[in-house]
From TrEMBL:
Residues 139-334 form the CHK kinase-like domain. This is CHK kinase-like domain-containing protein. It comes from the Eukaryota. Transmembrane segments: none annotated. Gene3D superfamilies: 3.90.1200.10.
Amino acid sequence: MTKDDFKTLTNISPALTNEKLSKSLSDWFKDSVTFTHWEYVSDTGKGDSYLSEVIRIRVHGVATNGTDKHIQVVLKTIPKNVCRRLTFRSDEFFKNEIAFYERVLPVLLDFQATWNPKEPFDKYTRLFLAHCDGVNDVICLEDATLENYGSYALRQEGIDLDHCDVTVKTLAQYHALSFALKDQRPEQFSDIREEIFETYYHARLWDWYGRFWRRISGIAVDAVENEYPNTVYLEKVKQFAVPERYGDMIAAAKDSTHGVISHGDCWTNNFLYKYQEGRPVAAKIIDFQLTRCASPVLDLAFFIYACTDQELRDKHYGHLLKYYHDVLSNQIRDLGSDPEKVYSWDTFMGEIKKYSYFGLAFSFESTPFIVLAPEDAVNMDMEGEEKLNIEDFWQIGPFKTKEGRLREANNVVHAVDHGYI
C-alpha cells in the first residue's frame, strides 16, 4: 500500500469515510478532532473469525489545538467476498451485534450507574464506531490489548480453574444487570430485548444449519463410539444427536421466563484475559453477534462444555455452579433487587437440569473447531457470488486424535451422568 492509502479507510470499507472517522474521534475524545491517517497494527490468525474480517489498527486525528489524537482499535468488517457474506449470513450477525452495542448495552450500563455497585460490570470493549447497511457493515471496538488483555494461548486444551473463575465471575456480573433491570424497570427491559433477535436457533434457519448439524452430530457419535463403545453413553448420544434436537435448541433460545440479555457464544475465543504473575485476574467478553434474551444457563452450560475438560469438571463442577450463583446473587443485591426473588438457587438449578443439554449440543459445533490445529483451519476463500450451504465449507471430519475424541465424548459422559440427556 502507498502512503496515500493510509489517508483513508474507504479501501477497507466504503462506510469508513473521513467524515465518519472525524465524528467518531471527536465523540471519543470529547473534542473537535479531524481524521488524518491510520496505521496497520496486526492481523488475526487463520480461522479466528468466520463471520467477519478482523484487523487491528490505529486511527489518528488532529485536535483544534494541533495535537495528535489517536486510538487503537479492533476493526471488524463484513466479508467483501459475496459468497462468504451470504453463506454465513454475516449481515444478520453484524446487525445483532451493532444493536447490542448501540441500543442495549448503554441501557444496562446507565441502569448500573444509578446503583453504583461495589464492583460494576466493566468487562467489555467500548464501541468506537459502527455502521450497518447489510453490505458494508463495520464494528470498531477499543483494543483491549492496551489494557494487557489477551486471548487464551492454549485454545486446544481445556482451561484451568483460575480461568474458569474469572470467566464465570464476569458472566455472572453481566447477567445480573438484566435480572435487576427486568425486576425494577420491566418495560425498559422489554424494550431492549426487542432490539436483538435470534441469529442461530430458529425455525427459519433449519435449511441453513440442518446439513451441518447432521455432520457435527455424526462426529459426536463417532467420538463416543470410539472411546466408549457398547456403553450407555453411546446409546444416549445416538438418541440425542438427531435432527429433532434442533427444535429443542429453538425452544431453549426463545424461553425468556428467566431471560437475560445473554452473550450467546461463550467459547474460548470470545474471552480476553488479564494476567498478573502468570495467573488470570480478570476476563473481558467480546463478540456479541449471537446475543439473545434467554436463560443465563445457556451461556454457562455452553461455557462449561466448550471450555473445560472432564478432569476439571470432576473436581470443580459443583464449585463453578455455586460460584456463579453466589457472584450473581451478590451483584443483583448490589443493584437493588432481591436475588431470592428474581433467580433463587432452586430456580437456577432447575434451569441447569432443564437446559444443560443446550450447552452440550452447541459444543458439538465448537469442540471440533477448538481442537483444530491452526494449519487445519477452514479456508474462507470462496468463489462466486451465490449463497451456498455452510456445510459446503465447514467440512470438518471425525477427530484425528484420541485427545480430541475424548474432549467431545467426555462432554457426553458428563451430561449423561448428571441426567441432562
